[in-house]
Amino acid sequence: MLLPLAFLTGPELLWSAVAFGLVFGFLLHRGGVTDFDVIVRLFQFRDFTVIKVMMTAIAVGGVGIAILHGQDLAQYHIKATNLLAVGLGAAIFGVGMVLYGYCPGTGLAAVATGRLDALAGLAGMLVGGIAYALTFDWVAANILPVGAYGKLRLPELLGLPEWVCYAGLVVMAAGIFALVHKAEKKA
Predict the structure, then answer these.
(1) Average of pLDDT values for 76-94?
(2) Residue 180 · residue 53 · CB < 8 Å
(3) Could you tell me the pTM of the whole model?
(4) Quick one: pLDDT at residue 140?
(5) Which residues pair with 148 in a beta bridge?
(6) Which residues, at least 6 apart from 143, have a Cβ–Cβ distance to it below 8 Å?
(7) Is the four-CA dihedral 20, 170, 157, 140 of positive or negative sign?
(8) Which single residue of 73, 118, 126, 159 could bond 111 by disulfide (Cβ 3.0 to 4.6 Å)?
(9) Distance from the first to the final alpha carbon of the chain
């Protein structure tokens, strides 16, 4: 059965992206993840707010995309799997997040709330993006081919129906919430 969601798509509704972005930024702020100290306490294993917000976003976003895709309101655009590039990118992202005290999304939301410390990271993101663009030909020739496996999706890789993977995502999120709750009670 198709849900009547077709009203959410189309070029005439591009303004909704701005509206959803504003709501998302507001929720990040209300969730506390635009606060430098909350991010730092995550890496000290003293505050798990970021994990809760991220797991909620991943589970809701994953299921939402599955629903939209199932109704032909969204299309998958699968990027190629490049293990070395992902590993290096993850390491750079992690070091940057620890040094900056924000991830890119929470950093931009922090800038919007007037946090001056977040402006330095915004400048860093811009410089990093420009540096990546200027070195992309070298990256494409020397890094992207290492561990390149093409366009993979978990359902095809595991040979499982798509709904099983999304159900597993929700179960994983619930399990992480339970572990976080247990850790918070212990602390």
Answers:
(1) 92
(2) no
(3) 0.70
(4) 95
(5) 82
(6) 82, 84, 85, 88
(7) positive
(8) 118
(9) 46
